[in-house]
Amino acid sequence: MSKCKAMIAGVAGTELSADEFAFFRDVNPWGAILFARNVESLEQLNELTTSMRDATGRSDLPIFIDQEGGRVQRLRPPLAPDYPSAQMIGAVYKRNPEQGLRAAWLLGRLHAFDLMSVGVNVNCMPVLDVPVEGAHEVIGSRAYAYSPDVVALLGRQSAEGLLAGGVLPVVKHMPGHGRAFCDTHKELARVTVPLAELVAHDFVPFKALNDLPMAMTAHVVFEAIDPEYPATLSDTVIRTIIRDVLEFDGLVMSDDISMKALTGDLGDLAEAIIAAGCDIVLHCSGDMEEMQKVAARTITLEGKAKRRADLALSYVGEPDLSNEEELRAEFARIFSVES
Helix, strand, coil shares of the chain as percentages rounded to 5? Predict the structure, then answer.
């Protein structure tokens, strides 16, 4: 395989422009990511993901999406059902734990059917953040529960459902976004509680699922750990907390580098993110000028990061379309989900 840049890039529209095709061909980012702006029809989406792979010459190019259910879902009817939120899965678990666990697995499995059919092989879920009362709604209904143990149980099942369908899950937002009192798409969040409280509460689901192959960082400052830098840019958080305390040896990608929680030149940020210990830089806007700036300062994927990336890709499987109708019917008995 030709050498890749340690970045994931977005695109502007529903098909690759000539400039975008050249970018994917020449820069060869490790992965690509899709948003609602890139989705028009199932046929169009298949053509887009195929052209991304044609440009890189990599049939296994990881193509990411945020398809959680609830309000974070890039494929909507009629292309995919409107799925329940993680909070709704948690409500089922509260009434009937066995049924709740099954619903979480089914949610992941049904996402995999939808995504693999259009060439998308990585889903940025489960959300393992544990909210606290009064926290910003940026997580809100995206969280399974207020209990770290329940979040871990349901997150595990959703991840296993994705994996059963050949789709790579990405746990987020490590080491925890549940205490953020602002929207990190717009500003930087700071968490002031002691480390012992974070370890006993916020970090629990991430530690429980530390065997999964990939995680996304939080643009959150944990003052008890590193009062200056958010997790994405913090050598202390990544190397001491994520790698040592949480014992996570999978691939670590940043959250979107262009979110307003981070400030400064995008090239400087890309370099700093890698220097802090992230393996992969995520850039989502699809703005070509920004993409070039990030790529110019992002290193080639190599060493431990490449080993982790190769391992993560080994979890991606072939689409398995068996039992789809049966599984959708089972899910519909738990939730009224209509295409």
Answer: 45, 15, 40
Give the whole-angstrom CA distance, residue 31 versus residue 54. Answer: 13
Distance CA 237, CA 243 (A): 8
pLDDT tens, residue by residue, 191-202: 999 999 999 999
> What are the residue numbers of the active site?
185, 255
The amino acid at 294: V
| 3-state class (DSSP) for residue 254 | strand
Token duo for residue 312: 């993560």
Q: Which amino acid is at 212?
A: L
- Read out DSSP for 70-116? TTEESS-TTTS--PPPHHHHHHHHHH-HHHHHHHHHHHHHHHHHHHH
CA 228 – CA 119 distance, rounded (Å): 40
List 215's β-bridge partners, or say none. Answer: 171, 252
Q: Which two tokens stand for residue 260?
A: 């307003």
Distance CA 235, CA 123 (A): 26
Confidence of residue 338 (pLDDT cuts 50, 70, 90): very low
CA distance 191 to 221: 6
